[in-house]
Specification:
Elements: H1 3-34, H2 39-44, H3 57-63, H4 70-101, H5 107-116, H6 122-136, H7 143-150, H8 155-166, H9 171-178, H10 183-194, H11 196-211, H12 215-220, H13 229-238, H14 245-265, H15 267-276
């Protein structure tokens, strides 16, 4: 292929990726500009830019329509998400390390049972879990989210970390053992620094899933003062017959920003973790 052909192919690839990227981002762009429009302009025109800009959408949306502002919902979401992410990383790492590096009775059977739970849809287990959490007295709290995370109840992350541990050479463990390290020291000093990409990937996934979770929050939380952002957004549509959609979309932008920022700031580790998980070293 000639130099001109290579350049043309590169230009076409860049043009295609640019158009495809704009198609993916366009809903977010429309959501942002719609937060400055009135209701009749949102539903009455196809124009992206507002004709009459409403500047107080974010201020009024943040105030909310009840006795609780969106600042309360944001704080509740952070208070729920941060422990869930930390506990998930801690418990999943320990369990994955056990499956990847140790030999014990019924190891393969237990691993198969753990993997099989990935096949269970949430609709099948939601009623037993609700009854169980009700008996524990955990309803209307964040314990149904944090306690399962503490006991490694997310098999997807365990499987992902197991595959990453298996890709690390066992010679590292043997060398550390010769130097006097025990199993815990091998995990914390040798393997965990190498697992940074996988840990970042698990943290991003769990953060976004928990941050955007609406169904489970709706099931387990029934007090408005403990609502998360997802429930707060839904409540803003219920309190009045005529919703101010610019305020709802403004608060939707506020809810999206943390997820987008975390993804872009940790994109390097995220892509590396997805690319290397499951590869043998």
């Amino acid at each position: 292929m000639t130099l001109a052909g290579v350049r043309m192919k590169r230009v076409l690839n860049i043009a295609f990726l640019t158009i495809f990227g704009l198609m993916m981002v366009y809903p977010l762009i429309w959501l942002f500009f719609a937060s400055f429009k009135a209701n009749n302009e949102i539903f009455g025109t196809l124009s992206l830019f507002p004709k009459h800009v409403i500047w107080n959408s974010y201020a009024k949306g943040w105030q909310g329509s009840g006795q609780f502002t969106f600042g309360v919902f944001l704080f509740n979401t952070i208070k729920m998400v941060v422990p869930v992410v930390l506990f998930t990383l801690l418990s999943s790492t320990v369990v994955a390390y056990g499956f990847a590096r140790f030999t014990f009775p019924l190891k393969n059977v237990l691993f198969a049972i753990m993997i099989s739970t990935l096949m269970l849809p949430n609709a099948v287990i939601i009623i037993p879990r609700y009854i169980l959490f009700k008996e524990f007295g955990w309803l209307n709290s964040y314990l149904p989210f944090t306690i399962p995370a503490l006991f490694a109840c997310y098999p997807f992350f365990i499987f992902m970390l197991v595959q990453f541990f298996r890709g690390l050479p066992r010679e590292l463990d043997e060398s550390a053992t010769i130097d006097g390290c025990n199993s815990f020291s091998i995990l914390t000093r040798i393997l965990l620094p190498l697992c940074k990409p996988a840990l970042f990937s698990a943290a991003i996934f769990q953060f976004i899933w928990t941050w955007n979770d609406f169904f489970n929050s709706l099931i387990y939380i029934n007090s408005v003062k403990k609502f998360t952002l997802a429930l707060g957004l839904r409540m803003s549509l219920d309190v009045s017959s005529a919703a101010m959609w610019n305020e709802v979309m403004a608060m939707s932008i506020v809810a999206i920003v943390p997820c987008v920022m975390i993804f872009f700031f940790a994109q390097k580790y995220f892509v590396e973790g997805i690319a290397t998980t499951g590869l043998k070293g």
